[in-house]
Amino acid sequence: MSYPYQIKSLEAYKEAYKKSVDDPEAFWGAIAENFLWRKKWDKVLNWNFKEPKIEWFAGGKLNITENCIDRHLATMGDKPAIIWEPNNPEERVRTVTYNRLHKRVCQFAQVLINNGVKKGDRVCIYMGMIPELAYAVLGCARIGAIHSVIFGGFSAQSIADRLEDAKAAFIVTCDGAYRGAKDIPLKSVIDDALVGNKTVKRVIVYTRTRTPVAMLKGRDVWWEDEMEHAETQIEKDGVVSFPAVEMDAEDPLFILYTSGSTGKPKGVVHTIGGYMVWTNYTFVNIFQYQPGQVHFCTADIGWITGHSYIVYGPLSAGATSLMFEGIPTYPDAGRFWDITDKHKVDILYTAPTAIRSLMGFGADPLKGKNLSSLKVLGTVGEPINEEAWHWYDENIGRKRSPIVDTWWQTETGGTLISNLAGVTPAIPSWATLPMPGVQPILVDEQGKEVTEKDEHGIIKGNLCIKAPWPGILRTTYGDHERCRTNYFATYENLYFTGDGALKDANGNYRITGRVDDVLNVSGHRIGTAEVENAINMHTGVVESAVVGYPHDIKGQGIYAYVICSQHESEEQTRKDILQTVTRVIGAIAKPDKIQFVSGLPKTRSGKIMRRVLRKIAEGEMQNLGDTSTLLDPGVVDEIKNGRV
């Protein structure tokens, strides 16, 4: 499979970028011609950021699974689509060819139909990182059901909230999942989440860990039994047939929940046509993918990175996508490097958190590792610091593999700003240049474009985008007004990313981090309000305030200031609060530091001065600004003295 739209030089990038801005409809219309459409679109793009209303390839008819699977069968049916590396290195690797992927996805599509799932229904998927997760996602897409994958680390309460918001009637899960030395009891978490639920009709359970589970008659069914029955329905005389449902380009493909600055997660909606074109285009160009290469994205499919760069981007490009069930430090800190050598990985795409964590183990885990197959390295999830960038470059890439530093969000569907591997220049810790179709602008608090440069020729401001790209979110599920206020109302006629950025004289961008009350912890976005709500559920807690602070491994850590009415011992209360947060949200949201305080710095109107708390958490005690106007200025000294 060739990619006529793959950019091969800096000049070609500049030319593509100019075309994409001057005439986006002609540019994206030409790229979309490379995909399989049942009916061509009526218009490439309709949009306004006021409502917002965004449509790409409106009136076009297609099914994304025909683009990810069916169109590859004639020429690449026996080529690996997914290589699955299990948590335990002693367990058998599974290689799923495009032919087998086709059969399994058709089978699971039939299972969904047999269990009453219809086009437009929401299916919640809560599984470990196994090929069946990909079959479930693609099976939903084949029949036009909307999938909502929930990361396996979320608590029962978090799942219950998402089920309620999506009004999901169907769940696909596993008995349990392996993650390093842990067995995670997924089915029992689902059972807890379903207490009091009135919408879920069916739970399909895949056997992975053989953890004992409760199966409710009439509601719960075994994946294996359902698949066996479906196989007899879809296979006649050795031919597998399950017709893909025709979908509109603007029909929803999936909902993915992300933390915001309020306590309630929001369901970001991506639609089929634009998302498909965007994930494919960014995958092929950023990683400079060549047919036959093995692409290893270490993310979980519970996050947007897994959706876009394990499933939809690589498979639509006919790539081989390596999927890993485990963690980078199990059974030892050489696991990524063992996998790279074992499968001759060409592209390794991981998070700065993982890189910083592995740096901490020193050179020993790299002894005897060849790594010569690596052509491209990538980072995702948060800005990478220079020290980690150089370690990655020297120790993993051996200074011969370009590093792509990709910046994007759940809401953007795929990468917006990144260098292209070996094609456009890389600058350590800078995301560099926007992808074709992406028009960034830096604005001040009033929304006015910032043009003033510092002595180094750098412009600093809040990062917005002026026009839509095909992968942009369309709405937040069931609440379009929330989408408008979150992303399009802060600055008129602009999409606001929530991030600050720097821009140099050559048009390169460096992301400086969130400017709102959202933390980026190990590449996962966590709203401070969400964590505060969870802490405040603990019986002894009166009030709390949560801020981020620099963390050597995670990038940002969570620092909680907590007022308690009474506590037996600080140590016990601290443990209880961590347990509460784990139960309400999940372990990923646990505060790294908890400081007990008698009061919080508040203005006379009652607003908590998070700026002051953030500086104290960061260890900056001197430049706190004017605190004399606070309701109780004395509380600041107490907090400074008690910093943990």
Structural class designation = alpha/beta
The main β sheet shows up as: 7 strands, mixed
User: Mean of the pLDDT scores?
Assistant: 94
Kindly state the percentage of residues in helix.
25-40%
Strand order of the largest sheet: 5-4-19-18-20-21-22
CATH class of the domain at 98-245: Alpha Beta
Radius of gyration computed on alpha carbons? 24 Å
Distance between the termini: 56 Å
- The percent range for strand residues is 15-25%
CATH architecture classification name of the domain at 98-245:
3-Layer(aba) Sandwich
> What characteristic shape results from the CA principal axes?
globular
Q: State the low-pLDDT regions, or none.
A: none
Q: Based on DSSP secondary structure assignment, what is the total number of beta strands?
A: 32
Return the CATH topology of the domain at 98-245: Rossmann fold
What is the number of helices?
A: 19
Structure report:
The longest helix has 17 residues, at 98-114. The strands form ten sheets. Strands 5-4-19-18-20-21-22 form a seven-stranded mixed sheet, with helices on both faces. With 644 residues, the protein is of the alpha/beta class. Among the domains are: 98-245, Rossmann fold (3-Layer(aba) Sandwich), CATH 3.40.50.980; 518-641, ANL, C-terminal domain (GMP Synthetase, Chain A, domain 3). Helices cover 31% and strands 24% of the residues. The protein starts with 9 loop residues before the first helix and ends with a helix. Helix 5 (98-114) crosses helix 9 (223-234) and helix 13 packs across helix 14 (386-396).
